[in-house]
Amino acid sequence: MQRKKVLINTDYPLLKTGLGKNGRNLVEYLYNTKKYDLYYYACGMVYDSVEYERLPYTVHGTMPNMQNEMDAIRQKGEYWVRDCAYGGYNLNRILKEVKPDVFITSNDTWGSETYLDNPYIKEMAANFIPHKTYDSVPFLPNQIEYFNKVSKVYVWADFAVEEAKRLGKNNVSKITGIVDPSHFRKLSPFIKSRLRQKFGIPEDAFIVVKCSRNQIRKQFKSVMEGYAKWKKINNPTRATYLLFHTNFTEPHGWDFFRFADELSIKREEILTTYVCKKCKNYAVAQFQGNEHKCPFCHQDKCFNNINIQDGVDEEQLNEVYNLADCMVHGADAAGLEITCIEGLYAGLPLATNPYASLEMFTKQPFVHEIQCTFGVQHGTQFKRAVLDPNSIAKFLQQTYTKTPQEIDKISRAGREWALSQFSPKVVCKQWEELIDSLPVLDWDQIERNVQSKQTKDPNAIIEEIADNKEWVKQLYSKILKMNVSDNDSGLIHWLVQLQKGANRQDILNYFRHTATQEINKKTFTLEDQIKQDTNRKVLVVLKESIGDVIIALGVLESLRKSYAGYSIYFATDPIHFEILDGNPNIDHIIPYVPFMEHELACVSKFNDKGLFDVYINLGISTQRQLNYITNNNICI
Ligand SMILES: [Zn+2]
Question: What's this model's pTM, rounded to 2 decimal places?
């Protein structure tokens, strides 16, 4: 069997984000099967870097190597910078270099939007696999559009499959995130005690952990409120702590100490994780700024609060989890919260709120469901969970008073379930089976197909050129990808219009609209496309020849006047399409098919299935007969 080339597009595998970890787990599993040639297209990284050489598969980044290229993208605007980071800018380059048989893009729902109009992606059909982290309901129109444009979409959580089904979309399946359990397990009571001693924490302390980016959506404040309430109501006798394994100075993040003061939580009860850049040792301590002297290797300014570049390794993260007695993880929206899975692997009792992917957890009997209400996010109007601190306080008191035997029972059930859902053995196997089910692609054929379909560009950037002729020629070349001569009838038409005082913006809009329609045509059948047009419709048929088609252009202008408000369809052999492209008197150019010889088959008056209201066959008119029943005798 031919080895398949698999291209994976997601966060860089050494980045400690959910997507980065998932990508790394997938690529490592596939690497170990020895079945595939593997390529990685890493979001937000430069295209070439020596750093990639330490990985055993080929890596390229999504961003240009040259600063001046990046500057040009910045000038186009924020949307294009983001598109570039996800992979849109270098997409053609990576596809042409790798020629993948399978292309997996694992990303946020607003990532890789421009992929859908890429001609190579369209040719790849089902071998292009979008794996999207839907994290909220209701879905936005452009998120739904994804289901319409792609043969199959994969999501990370059950709720997204259910929501898609509710919307009548049946091409959506779940492949969840992969979380490697090999570093996560419950440590023995002896090791746990030693860890606490090491960081100066009382051995019998009660510690609540929350591990995530310090983002507003991660609901740290509710956890603090729940913790404060619990202490106030129950007065626990043991020392208690909140362990926030996060970055205290992340831009736009929570200001923990401000809320601690507000809620009367002692600042020294809030712990976080520090790591040394040089020797990689870590410690858990109260947050006190960055760039400390490392207590382990004694080098200056290298001991910092963890961040997404410099974090702890998985073995150390397992120790951080094992310092704690339970995990409280609230999130107002959630694609998949990997920390919940790691926490269950490490045997922690878990509390979380039932929304989006978190429902997978709260449905389990060993997980405490944090009661929540729902608000609406400004702008997107997504549902947003608002957590009830009382429900968190209740969980803390229950966990605080449980016996070690009761906790062990919860730990075992949680770990077993998490392994059955998220371990590489289970999830990577699904990826492997999916990849193996897809055919090997013929890239020579794909290249030929792409070249033969000149791709229109409705979003091309048009420069202001004073000379009308050069300006219109620019519209043809940049938007419709056509080079027209000075005596081209379409060009002459537009120049006359401009002389008469037509507005340049209107003409530009017309070209963009034409290009968009051309692109859409490829995703619909002809019949669907015609049925979607609610205007009354004229069908002009002229199968051949090129000479006749050019002569026909002359009659189109008067036809447009006679049938004001109608959509004019021109059916001809596709080899003549280019002559007609951009002609203002034609709304749709469609391929000629033999049934169009028969007027009765085409018009709605005599046949319910007829698609058109008026029929004009220029070939027959010129050669045999002149008048046809529907021409100037409009059917109602
Ligand atoms: Zn050090």
Answer: 0.69
